[in-house]
Q: What sequence folds into this?
């Protein structure tokens, strides 16, 4: 696996792939890699794409400085995992490469995506995601890019970005990878104690409880019950909502089959976790 640290090294790698008419698969990350990221890498490798991962902790997407400072950095372990995964190149840019002095932020109207769920809770977050992914897509110029559906709302933002600026890049959305307990894999889980991890598994279990009440009782009552189960275990819910998975606007009635999505953000031991379930 090649490790690319400068824009020149990246450009040369990209040129070499094009010279060999090899298509490029791209997995942008912020590091602290886990099996969820590796699943994305393996999807790309399986499709015989020259697979490149980026690791860049993007300050523009953190609306909270202490959240940014606490973001885990595990670069040596990340490199080890990537080497085993079949990844061909790792791009580790510095902040000046991503945001050079001449960098002009793109304008992308996020519409409803910035107004619901994560949007109002993390002001500026999705704009920050759009800026960094725009820069990375411009530099890497992949044929395909892979994202995990745990960050469902982010996936919608990326699709919107691609539809405006990168119609040549195919966006592949991959399922959430979970621990046996049901807990969605996330870099943030590293900050939880064993007890915290155990309690965190109740998030997905609760989403399933609500899902199973689908059409038996009204969504608001099912959600109220879910919140009660979580509160009993000292899990502080920031939001827990039913939405339509196509539009992401929130609903007080169950949606047609396969268009329901329950989305949650909750705090355990001060760590903010998100998850969702579609049905
Ligand atoms: O999902 C992430 O890890 C980040 O939001 C992304 C897409 C790499 C942009 O920094």
A:
């Amino acid at each position: 696996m090649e490790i690319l640290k400068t824009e020149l090294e990246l450009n040369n790698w990209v040129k070499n792939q094009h010279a060999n008419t090899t298509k490029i698969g791209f997995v942008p990350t912020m590091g602290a890699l886990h099996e969820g990221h590796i699943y994305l890498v393996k999807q790309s490798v399986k499709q015989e794409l020259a697979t490149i991962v980026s690791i860049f902790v993007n300050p523009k997407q953190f609306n909270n400085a202490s959240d940014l400072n606490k973001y885990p950095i595990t670069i040596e372990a990340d490199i080890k995992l990537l080497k085993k995964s079949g990844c061909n190149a790792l791009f580790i840019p510095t902040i000046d490469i991503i945001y050079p002095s001449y960098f002009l932020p793109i304008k992308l109207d996020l519409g409803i995506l910035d107004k619901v769920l994560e949007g109002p809770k993390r002001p500026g977050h999705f704009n920050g995601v759009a800026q960094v992914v725009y820069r990375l897509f411009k530099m890497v110029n992949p044929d395909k890019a892979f994202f995990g559906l745990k960050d469902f709302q982010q996936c919608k933002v990326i699709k919107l970005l691609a539809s405006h600026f990168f119609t040549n890049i195919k966006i592949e959305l991959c399922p959430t990878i979970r621990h046996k307990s049901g807990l969605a894999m996330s870099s943030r889980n590293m900050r939880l104690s064993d007890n915290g991890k155990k309690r965190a598994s109740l998030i997905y279990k609760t989403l399933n409880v609500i899902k199973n009440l689908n059409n038996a009782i009204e969504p608001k009552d099912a959600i109220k019950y879910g919140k009660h189960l979580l509160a009993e275990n000292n899990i502080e819910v920031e939001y827990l909502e039913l939405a339509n998975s196509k539009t992401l606007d929130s609903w007080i009635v169950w949606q047609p089959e396969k268009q329901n999505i329950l989305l949650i953000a909750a705090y355990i031991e001060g760590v903010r976790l998100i998850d969702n379930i579609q049905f």
